[in-house]
Amino acid sequence: MANIVVIDDEREVGTFFLHLLEGKGHHVKLGLNGKDFSRLIKEHPFDLAFIDVKLPDTNGLDLLKQLKSELPSCKAIIMTGYSTVKTAVEAIKYGASDYIEKPFDDINELERLIEGLLGSGSTSSQNDMYKLAETLGFIVGKNKEMNDLIKLAYKIAKKNVNVLIEGETGTGKEVLAHFIHHASMRYEQPFIGINCGAVSETLLESELFGHEKGAFTGAVKEKKGIFEIANRGTLFLDEIGEASLAIQVKLLRVLETGEYIRVGGETIRRTNTRVIAASHVNLAQAVAEKRFREDLLYRLDVVKLTLPPLRERIEDLPLFIEYFLKKLNSNLSFSDDAILQMKQYHWPGNMRELFNVVKRAVTLAEGETTIITPDFLPEKLKTERTSLSQKLFSVRKNTEDGIDLERYLYEWTSYILSLWKENEKVDLEHVLSFVKDLEKQIGRAFVMKTLRETIGNRKEAAERLNITIRKLRYLLKEKGADPKV
Ligand SMILES: Nc1ncnc2c1ncn2[C@@H]1O[C@H](COP(=O)(O)OP(=O)(O)OP(=O)(O)O)[C@@H](O)[C@H]1O
């Protein structure tokens, strides 16, 4: 049986848990504040902690951090009221297993949550999470940021909170919204998406809220809006930043009250639609520039998920390529140098751009070859890669007969430092290949210089350099020379 601690300044909450949990044979300790908590965790090896967000002498997040450093294996559930849901979501990022809203109206769900946490529930729920992602064609990969993000998304999916997804274009915002819908209790209800930037203001209003017959020219019959059709389901508002200020006011009203009116109508209608909004622009910035309502942002970003761009999870590129090849029913594969070239590119269009590049390469290579080489990649990928290292290659090429060592070293250092500074996720093999090149170029430069000084006398040059003649020939890249000698 488990050791459980409950920290809440409302005594009734503690008493409630005491009855609920001791009835199941667990040992329960109660505390009213941070001071009690600090004492209790020193005295008992707890397995599970219920912590209220708002406490008289501290806040739940600080206690959570303390718990995770002193008793890392103890699971934690944060308790919250509506106004503190944002903090509770934050707590999940700090390692809380879940959060629950007070007052508790579904005891069965609470019991299931506790059983799940005390048993092996959390591993099996993670397996379910990855299985669901796979079924939906949502590739997560190994990238840590992406894994943390999907775990948070999976946990909050079951809560009735709005979600804001930010990320550059093509990073998979719609795929993630779809995943959240399927992981939620609403998965059997409709998931409907609309791009707020793709239609005019009038059309968007009628699409969202519906219209009555005769509401405007062309409204020959009444029409249901998405808030009506997606009732009990999920509405995906893509490019929310593009919605006009007038639409923003109407959206705010639905989010605050659940109420709306059809265009040209008078009846107040109610909806229970979960909104997942997405934006490729930073909405906080749009608020600062007065292009977006602050109160609407506050309603939308109860949970904010930010998708990393592809270049920041480039280690998973081969996995994405493999997935896209399968999706295209192709048996082709990409050569190592093609993948290397793709890893060097900065992918402004992210996953969508990658898919298009794979699709183009497959179309061009089909029937020609089984392995896709850099020749089948678009020019932009080649240009980008070479633009950085171009200078370095050209210095080397132009100095085949006597390398300008100083210039080469300068360009070499600049290039390596540019990789070092510009991109955290650099391909180390690529960097190391330049280190090998450096060794080769230095060897060759010394040999050439010495040969000039000895007027081409190889024996003398080799003696001066303290190497064998075979090594000298090897450094000059002459055939038959054994590199190991
Ligand atoms: N993690 C992923 N696994 C598999 N495919 C993905 C993933 N992320 C994105 N894609 C694919 O990339 C393409 C773009 O994804 P999506 O439309 O979700 O991006 P977006 O961020 O919503 O784009 P936009 O900003 O243009 O609306 C789609 O074809 C999608 O299937």
From TrEMBL:
Cited PROSITE patterns: RESPONSE_REGULATORY, SIGMA54_INTERACT_1, SIGMA54_INTERACT_3, SIGMA54_INTERACT_4
Domain Sigma-54 factor interaction positions: 139-363
A UniProt-annotated Pfam family: Sigma54_activat
Any Gene Ontology biological process: regulation of DNA-templated transcription
GO function term, MF aspect, one: ATP binding
Transmembrane segments: none
Modified residues annotated as 4-aspartylphosphate in this record: D52
Domain Response regulatory: 3-117
InterPro entries with a match to the protein in the record: AAA+_ATPase (IPR003593), AAA_lid_NorR (IPR058031), CheY-like_superfamily (IPR011006), HTH_Fis (IPR002197), P-loop_NTPase (IPR027417), Sig_transdc_resp-reg_receiver (IPR001789), Sigma_54_int (IPR002078), Sigma_54_int_dom_ATP-bd_1 (IPR025662)
Keywords: ATP-binding, Nucleotide-binding, Phosphoprotein, Transcription, Transcription regulation
Protein name, entry field: Two-component system NtrC family response regulator
Organism: [Anoxybacillus] calidus
